[in-house]
Amino acid sequence: MQRIGVFVCHCGTNIAATVDVKAVAEALKYEPGVVVSTEYQYMCSEAGQELIKNAIKENALTGVVVCSCSPRMHEATFRKTVAAAGLNPYMLEIANIREQVSWIHKNIEEATEKAIILGRAAIAKVHLNAPLTAGESPVVKRALVIGGGIAGIQTALDIAEAGFEVDIVEKNPTIGGKMTQLDKTFPTLDCAACILTPKMVDCAQNDKIKIYSYSEVSEVKGFVGNFDVTIKRKARYVDENKCTGCGLCTEKCPQKKVPNEFNLGLDNRRAIYIPFAQAVPKIATIDADYCTMLKSGKCGVCSKVCTAGAIDYKQEDSFVNEKYGAIVVATGFNPIKLDKYDEFAYSQSADVITSLELERLMNAAGPNGGTLLRPSDKKHPHRIAFIQCVGSRCDDGKGKSYCSKICCMYTAKHAMLIREKYPDTEVYVFYIDVRTPGKNFDEFYRRAVEEYGVNYIKGMVGKVLPEPDGTLTVRASDLLNGTQLNLSCDLVVLAAAIEPDKSARPLATMLTASMDTNDFFTEAHPKLRPVESPTAGIFLSGACQGPKDIPETVSQASACAAKVIGLLAKNTLKGNPCVAHSDELLCNGCSSCEKVCPYGAISYSDKEFRINGKMVTRRVASVNPAVCQGCGACTVACPSGAMDLNGFSNSQIMAEVDAICKW
Amino acid sequence: MDLKEQVLIMSGVDVRKCMACGKCSGACPSYNEMEYHPHQFVSMVKKGNIEPLMKSESVYKCLTCYACIERCPRGVEPAKLIEAIRLLAVRPQGSNHIKADDIPSLLDPELPQQAIVTAFRKYSK
Amino acid sequence: MTYSYYPGCTLKTKAKELDRTARLCAEKLGANLRELDNWQCCGGAYTASSDEIATKLSSVRALLEAESREEDIITLCSACHNVLKRVRNDLTNDANFAFKVNNYVKPEKPFEGKTRVIHFLEFLRDEVGFDNLREKVVNPFTGKKIAAYYGCLLLRPSGVMDMDDPENPKILEDFIRAIGGEPVMYPYRNECCGGYVALEDKSATVKKSEKIVASADGFGADIIITACPLCLYNLESAKGNSEVKYFTELLAHALGIKEA
């Protein structure tokens, strides 16, 4: 018989306002095996933990039940507490009477009753608990960063700085991401390329960093400290080791009509291309969708002009296997497609553009060499309207429910830059709210208004009407003046909502990392563990976790690196002892468990057994405890009851259910 | 049941979803003929200030073209509020906005029947 | 293929051309339009109020009759189409409405939702197919710049009408291409013409229609086509340069129908 102590936490008023904590402690006192039952205001505080430790020693307790918040919050805390008092940490059970009781119930009587029932279930379970010891596994001292934008670059540089090896996998031919497409950056208006390209070069030159450009992660196996990753190196039809990046091929290629994604299709590139002059690595790539040689076997111009002999039309996708201790997701964002918001006429007029397209039009390396000209007739626009929140803050089944966070600031930047460079151009910004929380952000916006004379109009645009004379009539509310405006403009710029990159969802599945309904990666804790995924060993950097501007992305990227370094600095990791095991005598070899295991932790082998005096060979399951994450899927799938989970055994769970139903 | 509740039930509109962006009024083709504009219908209903809306000619200027409904980023449906308030105004006996006797003087011989039946449905009960 | 046909009040009076040309085109395309026996006027406008029953009963009866014939309903007038389609949506999605209506109408069999409400344009796109239609054209409108006018009733509310993208529709443009014409893109094609306000305040509807016609003219339209008699009336009142026609008039000509 266990000797059990029960400790009921008030959590200030979080629990105590809705649950009669004294009544819970009193009721649980009379449960079988309970030798002490008490309550305290903050059980997780030092004094609360002392109370538990003393009770263990004074009453020679063998098991502990804490009725408190979710085990996700403080199970680790209380395990340390009981271990400090000499108990095995797995002799602790938590009854969650906060998230599952006080926060979701209003009636005190009902809540108290439910808290007592959950306490009883935990007590029933502790009776069947056995001491567990965690195994140890070694840590591979190398990190993988998926995505080579500013987030991935910063995380990789910081990890390398600490002396660990780090690989960057980037799906495009160059690292740099969205920031390479930006002109200036708020709130200081420094040139994006000037501050980004040195970091890109640092990545290339750092001997701890390896860049897999034009590559994708195709498979992830293993677990924290020991991931086994397959990287697909897409065929670029150019030998990376031979190409010098001279660019001659990109000038001679006769296929000139390929939409240039770097300039968002505002101009064309060749079928063999280097995305931009500062690309890292500076290696040419052949676009197989447009290359005449690859499509019809006739051409070969690039091969003829390449003095390095780097062109290889026969190149195929190849695969690399690497082991990593930690994986960083830095897959970034994209502006949404605007086809569902065609009241703004994006698909009907070339002079309705997105903000990212404006970045290219304003950029010295852009399609117009930095001179702002209308796409339709290459004329200088004299009146420009910016429309905010296109697809953001929407509950219309078409857009995104969230605020995209970066648009207010980059629009103020655009407006200011245009007024600075073209003082004869009038600029209007149609806004719902101007949101500028950030250091020097509101001051920046006010400068746009007060110094640069940008016209901010509170009211959303209802429709953009392309007129026969080539102008665009912007029909909008002017809420402060109580009028409807019909403003004749030359150019309209839409602040399109941003969304996670499409590669994020399949990657999350590969990593078993959780996502929210918008496909942003979920943090382990929104406040206290913002750069970690709930899946151990998976870390989050940049806009894959939520909309972010550059300063915030870089801060988070460095925070993420710190967490990765903390992991890689360890030689071994304590495993989770709550893993599955198979009773080989009960196992019938059906493979059900192997099929449902999401971690590939179960394997089958033939073993000899003595049955009724005869030796018999049978096929049975065994679990690799280093790989098993203790999810329990196998125990449910097993038809013969051979699979069981340490710490959550079938008998423990049934005891909990019985305790609840007995009530 | 007070007027506000009546309007909310008849229209099925959740006015609390409005974020006051004004897109409805930016889309309205009858804006200049209206005393109260679509976004004001939403905010005045939210406040329970229904009577001025019932008395206003604005309810007869709405074309029920649904541009405001189609383009509202929050799914608020201002035109349905206007419809409900117009019904509250014309339903009581003797409150018809257009009477059969008015028709002959208004009638253009080329006007399709559709316009007359629609106007009657909108303006009279 | 046989369809129940709901002409509506205006097609029997001021818009006889829309009715006549549509019937001839349907015949030429091998579709049998059987006019509903006891149709009543749809009322011209759908009343979007949860407590309205009576104004929707004529549509309910039309739907019930068509379903008892095991046929879909074809409509032409945008207003009839809007009202019938939205009442059908209420009948199939609003159990409370269906309950009240069934208590009132006492049908032999309540509406099950088998009968669909199809606009003649949808019939051309989804049943005939614009590619097939193109092959049947004998008098193409080659070189003619034709502006499609949708107005509001065909497209909105898009969730229920479900005909096309409400902001950038293409069904009429595809139709124009099928009959050999060149569609004119202009931003007013889905802006309201002013509708029934024409009765009380014609200056208001003329003002709105003038903008529409001026925009179509400005983009070089020779002809404006529409499906709605009231749109046609309002657009004609604006006195622009382009002719305003029912789309079925052009179709009948394109198909080489002599009577047209």
Briefly, what is this?
Chain A is an alpha/beta fold. In chain A, 28% of the residues lie in helices and 25% in strands.
Q: Structural class given helices, strands, pairing of chain B? A: mainly alpha
Low-pLDDT ranges of chain A: none
**CATH architecture assignment of the largest domain in chain A:** 3-Layer(bba) Sandwich
CATH topology of the largest domain in chain B, by name, is Fumarate Reductase Iron-sulfur Protein, Chain B, domain 2
Helices and strands of chain B, in order, run as: HHHHHHHHH
What is the multimeric organization of the chains shown?
heterotrimer
Mean pLDDT of chain B: 95
Structural description of this entry:
The complex is a heterotrimer of chains A (663), B (125) and C (260). Chain A contains 18 helices and 34 strands. Chain A has 663 residues and is α/β, with parallel strands linked by helices. In chain A, helix 1 runs parallel beside helix 5 and helix 2 crosses helix 3 (71-84). The two termini of chain B are 21 Å apart. Chain C is of the alpha/beta class and 260 residues long. Chain C has two domains: 2-120, Glutathione S-transferase Yfyf (Class Pi), Chain A, domain 2 (Up-down Bundle), CATH 1.20.1050.140; 133-254, Rossmann fold (3-Layer(aba) Sandwich), CATH 3.40.50.11810.
